[in-house]
Structures are given as C-alpha cells and as structure tokens.
Design a protein that fits this description.
Distance between the termini: 44 Å
CATH architecture: Sandwich
Strand order of the largest sheet: 2-3-15-8-18-6-5-4
CATH superfamily: q2cbj1_9rhob like domain
Bound molecules: 2-oxoglutaric acid
Oligomer: single chain
Structural class: alpha+beta
Order of helices and strands: EEHEHEEHHEEHHEEEEEEEEEEE
Shape: globular
Radius of gyration: 18 Å
Number of helices: 6
CATH topology: Jelly Rolls
CATH class: Mainly Beta
Strand content: 25-35%
Amino acid sequence: MDISVKPRLIGDDIFFNFKEIDYPTNTDGNIIAKLQTEELDGVINKNVFSEKEVNEILEAVKLIPESEKLNNYVGQSFPHDFGTVTNNNERLENYLDRLATFNSLPFQKLTNRLDEFFNKIGASFKSGVPNFKHNNKETSPGNFRFLMPNKGVLFVHCGYLLQTSAEYFYNNVNHIKREGQLSFFLMLQYPEQGGELTIYDLLWKGVNKKDIFEQNKYVIDKNGEKVFLDNVKKFTVRPSPGDVVVFKGGPIWHRVEDIKGELNRITFGGFINFSEDNN
Ligand SMILES: O=C(O)CCC(=O)C(=O)O
C-alpha cells in the first residue's frame, strides 16, 4: 500500500486541536500565531517538500560521516542534540564541530525551504536560529533523527521536560523565551511499521515530572502521583514523507513508537521558541 494515502491523524478522539493542512494552497500566515494561543495545538502541513526534494535530502544524508553521528538508545542523531551542550567546553566544541560539518554538506536547500515555510506560516514573525551569548556563534537549526528498528520507544517527554535537562543551553543562547515552545519535524523516511508519534492527553501544567527519564510506563503529576500511560487518552500522528508537523511539543507529552521492518525512521526536527520581544 502506498504510505502517502494512509491517514495522518489516527484515533477515535482527537482531543487536541490538530489539523491537516494542504501546503501551500490551504495555509495562511497566522498558523504560528494560532499555535501561541488555544486556537491550535498542532498542524500537519502536507507535502511541504516534494518526493524529489525528499529524495535529494536523503541522498545528501548519505554523505554524513558515520563517525560524526551521535549514537543514542533509539538510533542516531546529527548534528548533536542541544541537550549534549554543557558547561564542559569539550561538549560545546563537539556540538559546534558537528554543526560545521552539517553546514559543509548540501543541506542549504533544506534549511532555506524550512525558513521559507516558517516565514509563510508565521508571517508576523521573523524566523531564525538563536546565537550563543558568549561567542555569538549560531546554534543548530535542528537535527536529523534516525530511529532504528527494534530499539524501543522514544521515551515519553515534552519540550519543557527537556528544557530542565538542558539548563546550560537555554541559559546561554540569546533572546529566547522558554514559554510557548513548539516542536517541528520534517518526515523524510517513514518506517514499514510503527514509528507513530503518540500524543497524550497530558499537559505540563498538570504533569511535570519523571523519576526515571527513559522509562515509558508512567509520569508524575503535580501532587506527586504516578499517572500510568496505559490509562491516559491518546491519539497518533503519522505524517507522510515531505510533511512538516508543528505542534505544542513544549507542554504536550508525547513519544514515538517502536519501529519494525528494515527502514529507519528519518526526520529533521527541532524546537521553536519565541523571542523575548515576540518578534
Ligand atoms: O519525531 C517525532 O515524531 C517527534 C519528535 C519529538 O519528540 C519532539 O519534537 O519533541
């Protein structure tokens, strides 16, 4: 079956306001502004990149030196995740080195098109990457995430939880506000089975802890009670290659399901934070 005809939003009850939007025909310049309010919680922007463009990016991905990818418990990422940057200088240098390799590879079309996309759906904002305060160097616009078969689930999290483990990064980049963080990712290669993004009916304002970061059974609410994921309402998001998903990944708890088959799940994603002046 052609994966592009499969439904992208799956579940009896899509309890957050997630929308599928044909790009560029049915989009508008207020999407990012609406994601800042209660009006929208997530958008699957369909076919932002054509099949040809996706294939060109996947060809360029093959040029990434294996030695520069970061291995993690579900697969690999490139360039390094922001969470790896600490006040240990070696970590920061590794991050900047990998970013220099990223910039030397033919990914300009990817980053330019993403920039164009964000300017289109966020017409009242100017999109860009923040700089490190101490050396004015740019941070990474996002990274490739390679989730590999049978490695298990990308653990349940939300952006605000990740912020708590990336204090150094957030304290050392210019002009960004932590509140209102969004997640985005471009789907490049969908696995044969699994790999859905699961969205839980759980928000940071009620649930703001995990005792073991990598576990997937429960999270902890503001009263210190365990909330077991099996008892929580959920729906899933299954974008097709070329789609860009933007959602309230800061406050909404989510995870990515285990992958089966031969193919890796490949995305290019990152986080969006608003600037202090909201421009
Ligand atoms: O790849 C995905 O489906 C989601 C990525 C993610 O967990 C995030 O952006 O926070």
